[in-house]
Amino acid sequence: MLTGCDHIAEEDRLIYVKPEPAKRIVLLEDFTGQRCPNCPLATDLIEQLQETYGDALVAVGIHGGPLGFAGTAKVVGLATPTGDEYYNHWQLEYQPVGVINRQKTPLKYSDWAAAVKEELQKPAPLWLDGNAVVVDGDIQVTIEAQGTDGIVTGKLQVWLLEDSITALQIMPDGKANQQYLHNHVFRLAVNGTWGEDFSIEEGKIGTRTMTLPLQPLWKPENLSIVAFVYNDSGVQQAVKVEVIKD
């Protein structure tokens, strides 16, 4: 049998082809608050960066910390207990502050542009894609990963975001804007505060599915899913997909 293998023509032998390199997507976690007068300035910067880099930059507004606002019976609040947990985990001391690709040093917003540009130059070892569909009052989420370089291990994190939320915001002049439009607002962690174990080999494809109930206050047309893989070296890849109705 081994001798017989020698008769396979050279052009007919299987040759491994390395997957195409993955496009790097950068995650910017913007720790913000409705009672933070400088936070709208950071939001303006995010909009400028997204105009420059398009979908290569995924921004998430995480409301919490001392300037976060959980709301009252009459006033909409966007802070969440999970947002507070993330704020405390990073040992943050002021707002706005950003964590870019989960590198170890949180940054003031004047340093974000340079950090995003630097992270975009790094290779990504996997692709991420997904879809999210509203079916019978639930959001059904599918995340697909493909390894493109070596073996990646870490955590897969999936978040739900909402755009176009009109709610209170303290502005840089100190005045309260009751009609401020908040975008990319963190709503909840779909698969736990710190995600779930994840591993993918080069050339392999894997999928994860999960379901969460649609809450009455959410507007499905404004929802999106952000998924990212991270480990001790930071975020390895990210993706953002809109939630659609079936």
Describe this structure as you would to a colleague:
The structure is a single chain. The protein is of the alpha+beta class and 246 residues long. It has one domain (23-245): Sandwich (Immunoglobulin-like). It is built from four helices and 13 strands. The strands form three sheets. Strands 4, 5, 6, 9, 10, 11, 12 and 13 form an eight-stranded mixed β-sheet that branches. Strand 1 (26-32), helix 2 and strand 2 (57-63) form a beta-alpha-beta unit. The protein is globular and about 70 Å long. Residues 1-5 have low confidence and may be disordered.
- What's the helical proportion of residues? 10-25%
Number of strands: 13
Under CATH at level 1, the class stands as Mainly Beta
Largest sheet: 8 strands, mixed
Determine the CATH topology. Answer: Immunoglobulin-like
Please give the count of helices.
4
Main structural class: alpha+beta
Average pLDDT rating = 94
Q: How far is the N terminus from the C terminus? A: 54 Å
Write out key terms for the chains shown.
8-stranded mixed sheet, 4 helices, alpha+beta, 246 residues, globular, Immunoglobulin-like
The gist of it:
By secondary structure, the protein is of the alpha+beta class. 15% of the residues lie in helices and 42% in strands. The strands form three sheets. Strands 4, 5, 6, 9, 10, 11, 12 and 13 form an eight-stranded mixed sheet that branches.
